[in-house]
Design a protein that fits this description.
Radius of gyration of chain A: 20 Å
CATH class of chain B: Alpha Beta
Largest interface: A-B, 58 and 56 residues
Oligomer: heterodimer
Shape of chain A: globular
Helix content of chain B: 10-25%
Distance between the termini of chain B: 19 Å
Number of domains of chain B: 1
CATH class of the largest domain in chain A: Alpha Beta
Number of helices of chain B: 8
Shape of chain B: globular
Strand order of the largest sheet of chain B: 4-3-2-1-5-10-12-13-14-15
CATH topology of the largest domain in chain A: Glutaconate Coenzyme A-transferase
Number of helices of chain A: 12
Radius of gyration of chain B: 18 Å
Number of strands of chain A: 12
Chain lengths: ~300, ~280
């Protein structure tokens, strides 16, 4: 008798991104300057996806700003788009928001999580006590205020479910069956994953299933629909336990996107050309960054596993 | 000790505010508050329960060597100081007073019943701050027609619902930032917090590089509480977009003493992040 085999879900970055259709809702994991699945983000731009609703992490970085600046996004669900010390407000986010070219689903961090939690738990909405008294419900008509229905006087927000078609999550490693493990902070990645219809993992390494079984406690996202292997896949951002952020590249990004905001599209188009359109794949992108630079970003893992 | 800048002064000022045992979350891109919290743990508050940034590591550095002051809240290197890690979303769900509203009225009665979560102090920034202590990170202009789009509200209106003392801060003191009324409210000020019945106390202070404002208990509007060393009352009046009132004589903040500055520079901020 022939034994059935488990299905492996590994794909190349381009095959994986080909599954994303124009108009879909796509969530991008990570937080701040860390653990964003940038290899996949660049491929989305390379494949010229359009009219996406992009869901940022609770502190979306220039991952979302890049998708906006490349013309892939029509709507942005994120409580923050910027990069802290590098650039407090994403320049493309500012440009497209001020011109009205993108719709912004105004929220705060837990309003985002409440929406994801609602989707993950199969409910149409969840209540939240934050946001009352702020301008957020006035700017976002999807958030509905209601008074405590069991006798109290306080007001709450009904936050509708946010259900991404795809959530794209960076992990340290995953096996070929989609069992991914975070090596550093999980941030809100598990919430993005649980809310999604389908999960795409962007892993620094694909590891044998036996390696995952050595420590199943560490498996943070299980049975993803698709896994891509992309070493240095979070570049120019940091990947916890692997490498730190490429300050020089991020400053170049800030500079080019700032020029774009001010109407100098040449610099911005050049940035997109050399980082996304010209390289034929992720490895060629890394060749463009250079081995000396990449080796210099190495970060020794703080904790053992 | 006159050789210090406003960032060091602000870090030391907030460090003095922290009491031993306080539960604190120090938010994003706030190296001043990282420094304040770490300094407090090293000088007088070693039992502070501290969530350092969005990475959600609970950190105690009281007996730990700090290589360099972290600049960003998501940095992997924060893990060096961590004792536990949790999902980011958990910060908000359990961010409340143990024992409920009574906690704020009765002081610390319930303090020992909740070991982990963070209800005592939080720090909030803004592109605009008004006389009620409301902070705006959304933008300038009208709904649907913003002339300046801000970065977004992050988690500040989630946390205000339950945290006891919020310190609103801005990194420059001028009439563009300190206004009569903010264009949009990310973080509701003291008056709104009372009106909507939040358990949280709302803003305790507004702090700028020039001054501290506290709040009149009746009108719930800002009043000048203290000046930074070397700053004049006229300077503050000229650079504030709402009427500067005070409750009696305005004090000047005590400058950093030798111990504070030495520990800040030699143990917390060796590489001079605050001096850069």
């Amino acid at each position: 008798m022939q034994k059935p085999k488990r299905k492996e879900v590994t794909k190349s970055v381009s095959e994986a991104v080909a599954q994303i259709e124009d108009g879909m809702t796509v969530a991008v994991g990570g937080l701040g300057a860390d653990n964003h699945p940038m290899a996949v983000v660049r491929e989305i731009i390379k494949q010229k996806k359009k009219n996406l609703t992009v869901v940022g992490s609770a502190t979306a970085g220039l991952d979302i700003d890049l998708l906006i600046g490349a013309g892939c996004a029509k709507k942005v669900i994120a409580p923050y788009v910027g990069l802290e010390m590098y650039c407090p407000i994403g320049h493309n986010f500012r440009k497209y928001a001020e011109s009205g070219e993108i719709e912004i689903w105004e929220c705060s961090e837990y309003i985002l999580y409440a929406g994801l939690f609602a989707a993950a738990s199969g409910q149409d909405f969840l209540s939240w006590h934050g946001g009352i008294g702020s301008s957020v419900p006035k700017l976002n008509k999807d958030l509905v205020e209601f008074t405590d229905p069991i006798g109290g006087k306080k007001k709450y927000l009904a936050v509708p479910a946010i259900r991404p078609d795809w959530s794209i999550i960076h992990v340290g490693w995953s096996d070929a069956y989609g069992n991914g493990q975070h090596v550093g902070a999980p941030f809100g990645d598990r919430w993005l994953a649980r809310a999604a219809n389908r999960i795409m993992l962007c892993a620094e390494r694909i590891v044998p299933n036996s390696f995952i079984r050595k420590n199943p406690f560490m498996t943070s996202v299980s049975y993803a629909d698709c896994v891509v292997e992309a070493p240095y896949g979070a570049h120019p951002y940091a990947a916890h336990g692997f490498y730190h952020a490429d300050d020089e590249h991020i400053k170049d990004y800030v500079n080019c996107s700032n020029a774009n905001r001010k109407g100098d599209t040449k610099k911005w188009d050049d940035y997109l050309k050399r980082t996304t359109h010209d390289p034929k794949d992720h490895v060629e992108y890394l060749e463009g960054i250079g081995i000396r630079k990449l080796l210099g970003l190495y970060e020794h893992p703080v904790v053992s596993w | 000790m006159s050789d210090y800048n406003w960032k060091e002064m602000m870090a030391i000022l907030f460090s003095r505010e922290i009491e031993d045992g306080d539960r604190i979350t120090s938010g994003a891109h706030t190296e001043i508050f990282f420094a304040a919290n770490m300094l407090a743990q090293k000088t007088h508050a070693p039992n502070t329960k501290l969530q350092l940034g969005g990475t959600c590591f609970l950190c105690n550095v009281s007996d730990q060597e700090i290589d360099s002051l972290p600049k960003t809240s998501t940095d992997y290197s924060l893990l060096k100081y961590a004792e536990t890690v949790h999902d980011h979303a958990e910060t908000f769900i359990f961010y409340g007073p143990p024992g409920g509203e009574e906690y704020y009225k009765e002081g610390s009665t319930f303090r020992d019943t909740n070991h982990f979560w963070f209800a005592d102090k939080f720090f909030v920034g803004g592109i605009q701050v008004d006389k009620y202590g409301s902070a705006n990170l959304i933008g300038l202009g009208e709904p649907g027609n913003m002339t300046f789009r801000g970065p977004g509200s992050i988690g500040i209106n989630d946390i205000v619902a339950t945290v006891r003392d919020v310190y609103v801060f801005i990194t420059a003191h001028d009439t563009r930032r300190l206004v009569e009324e903010v264009d949009f409210i990310s973080f509701p000020g003291k008056k709104i917090c009372r009106e909507v019945g939040y358990m949280g106390g709302g803003p305790k202070w507004i702090v700028t590089p020039k001054a501290i404002f506290d709040f009149d208990p009746d009108s719930l509007t800002a009043r000048l509480h203290a000046l930074f060393p070397g700053v004049s009352l006229d300077d503050v009046k000229q650079n504030t977009g709402f009427e500067v009132v005070s409750n009696g004589e305005v004090q000047t903040i005590e400058p950093p003493n030798r111990d504070e500055l030495e520990i800040l520079r030699n143990e917390v901020d060796k590489t001079g992040v605050l001096r850069a």
